[in-house]
Amino acid sequence: MNQTLRRAIVESQEYNLSTKSAWNLYQEKGQYPDKSIRAEIFDSWENSKKLGISPFQNKINEIISPNTLKTRLDKNQQLLSFATPKINSLSDILHDSKTMLSITDKHGTILHSSGEKGVLENAERISIFTGGTWSETSAGTNAVGMVLKTKQPSRVLFSEHFCEKNHDWYCVASPILDPFTNELIGIINIAGCSNQVHQHTIGLVISEVNNISKSIDRQYHEYILRNNLFLNTALEGVEDAVFVVNTGKSIIEKNRVAKSHSILKDVQSIKHLPELDRLVDSVLLYGLRIREEKVSHDENKQKFICSIYPVTFQDERLGAVIFLRENSAYPSSIGHTPSSGRSLHTKSTRYNFDDMVGSSNDFVDVVKKARKASLIDATLFLTGETGTGKEVFAQAIHQASNRRDQPFVAINCGAIPHGLFESELFGYESGAFTGAKAKGNPGKFELAQKGTIFLDEIGDMPLDLQVHLLRILEERVVTRIGGDKPIPLDVRVIAATHKNLAEAVKKGEFREDLYYRLCVIQMRIPSLRERIDDVPELVTQFMETMGGQFGKQDIRIHPDTMDCLTQYTWPGNIRELKNVIQQALFNTEGNIVFPFDLPPELVKNIGENEKEALIEAMIRENGNITNVAKTLCISRSTIYRKIKQYQLKPEDWLG
């Protein structure tokens, strides 16, 4: 056992006096303590102070809800199945050593605890219980929080804790790491508050915990290796080139076809394939499956058909598997003209007019105008609040136009750093500036040749760069940075903003001549509150398209829930509605979405009605939680949560 740990536990009174003195000096005067305090402990004290942790707080800052805890337990089922039997086998040792042992998830939230009864009861008083999160942000300096930061074994002894309420406790924590990615999976933590322990006994406990941690690591290794072998065998049996990528989008494995492909064998990151990179973003962010999408390799115009599948473990996305095959419809030779007469450019849109959902008068009218706009080539200016779907309209217009087989290139004018704006839009020649690619690089306008360029958030374009865009729109040519050769452009321009550009012109924040050049045809996309009658139809579509991501089928909306959704003003528009439905699908326990499955801001108007309905049911069933749950078609745990939420007491229903 570590000498410091032995001294702290066996000579706890003397050790605690020393560290307590240093803690008092730090808290009262902010002075750096003497060498009795380890450097990593002092660093954590400093960070705890910066995080706003009170050294005198009585409870931790984060205790997750019962619903969230259930979700965490489900997600960590594999971890618990490995760890729980081993922890339970230590019950006698934990009892003799007057200690407790907890296992947390990768966030530091306790999932399971076991140990001597008296210790567990004492631990409850300082929030060491299932659902309590022991990160540094929640609890200040503690052993679990230290492991979360370092992924290394850690110990925090008595007054080394930042919060005074923990000064009677010692904690020793060990990480459980993924054997292949080295990512943190969970933490095992020993805690005790008694100094009546023989050093041999506590040493035995710590040794056993280290053995458990290593054993779980081995089980994970065997589990992943076993499945990986089957995966590798399957991948070598397909004719497609296959990439396995992690969440950082680095390629961590290729199959034989990919390794021998003339182009793909040299690709180390999918960031070298921009079209593929964007698709993988959708897979990693939203868990989507991509099937049969066309992508190209920019450098040599090689065409591929790709399918992408997310890789998950315990409901956590770990990466993706990408299948690529050459698109036989397009020749790989750059100089060859395709017999079909189709362009070598791939379609890069995901929406068309068939994806438009809504039957309100305002929405039907704007869709009708958009269809009409798709038949002409004039510059189009879309206005509307953030989240109304301006890019969806832009893509649909492109898809319905005679440019549908040509590129659709979108650029967010508010997201590009000022210094990179010109090179992004206009491209650059070799040697134009330090760090420039040896062969130069085409700009967005060149990439959109013969197709459509979508300039989103045009109102955020820097004023000094607007003159360059004006010149392109007037002359229909672009010249790369560092070049002197004008490149003729055949590009349809669609611009969009949520700002009032007319007001921006008056304030001198936007060029008047550019404003009139953009506003050849102007269309305003209505906000969701202006087409509130479309909400039920949109909700139904989102439920159908996203339910599978959450393992839900045949989802129904409770009438009170729909009332909430149609009474809300939706400041974030359709984007916010989609996020709310995702949250509701995540929260709901069955196949009916109730109001309490929605975010709080949507249900505040019906809170009193729900409270009254709960009290009435409790009175009718004489406080029988099981019967109330059946009556209201919700789980018992939800009933308990609602009782706590509305601060109800037995006298509210027992009279």
How would you sum up this structure, described in words?
Helix 1 crosses helix 2, helix 5 packs antiparallel against helix 10 (199-235) and helix 20 (535-546) crosses helix 22 (573-587). With 655 residues, the protein is of the alpha/beta class. Residues 329-347 have low confidence and may be disordered. The longest helix is centred in the N-terminal third of the chain and has 37 residues, at 199-235. A five-stranded antiparallel β-sheet has the order 2-1-5-4-3, with helices on both faces. The chain has a five-stranded antiparallel β-sheet with strand order 7-6-10-9-8. It has a five-stranded parallel β-sheet with strand order 12-15-18-11-19. It has 27 helices and 21 strands. The two termini are 59 Å apart. The radius of gyration is 31 Å and the shape is globular. 43% of the residues lie in helices and 17% in strands. It has four domains: 3-223, GAF domain (Beta-Lactamase, 2-Layer Sandwich), CATH 3.30.450; 236-326, 2-Layer Sandwich (Beta-Lactamase), CATH 3.30.450; 353-524, Rossmann fold; 532-654, Helicase, Ruva Protein, domain 3.
